[in-house]
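Teaching assistant's notes for section 4

Start the section by putting this record on the projector. Ask students to predict, before seeing the second block, whether Glycosyl hydrolase will look compact or extended. Collect guesses on the board.
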Amino acid sequence: MNLKRIFKPHILVLLAIVGLQSCKEKKENAPQQEVAVATTEQDGFVQIFDGKTLDNWVGDPNYWRVENGNLVGEVTPTTLLKNNTFIIWQGGQPADFELKLEFRIAEAGNSGINYRSDKVDTIPFALRGYQADIDGKIRYTGQNYEEKKRTTLAYRGEKARITSQENPDAPGSLRANVAKNAWQSREILESLGDSDELKTKIKSEDWNEAHLIIKGNQLQHYINGVLMSEVIDDDTVNRTSSGHLGVQVHVGPPMKVEYRNIRLKNL
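Reveal the predicted structure now:
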């Protein structure tokens, strides 16, 4: 009797069964790992723009529309602005949060993401407050600029500590503490990198991702995963802890800015 002929087929069958079982286990395990990563990435984030309508947003329809799934802000030669205008989210006034979105802006464009902001009663669709600055020439993109208030708090590449002006109760003290479009009561704690080098991380007239992490008095602005500016706001007189969220089109030449995948996570 040839034992090799008898056992060889059985051995081959056994090896095949073991191999199939091993492949099955790998296939079962792999998707579970991928799902876990995706769940972690999206955990707690909620889409606040549906890509189809302006539901839950309010702004001047002369400047804002939905197009190809994007929130579009556009100024044309026949609709030039006298004041900056915003489209404002109506779903709440976030305090501590993370915001992720993608933006694309024309070279002549000037925009920004306002948060913890107040409405300006005398100007329709205007906001006053913190802004993650965005512009098409990438001069200011990434900095923290406070619209209609303390102006520049941290330029791109800066981690800055902000304090109150002297004699804050005196008339005009806030405006008097601004020079060259920057708040004077600020201390640079750390360099986050050279501004021109950080600029190279931002794509011109293409899609970029902004990520804001706003918690307590710490305000961090990331673009494409890179920390561009950080503010520690110790100005107890002027800082705000919650407020409106909106995006801007700016006074100036005709321009276009687009936003998509706007996601909010309350902390």
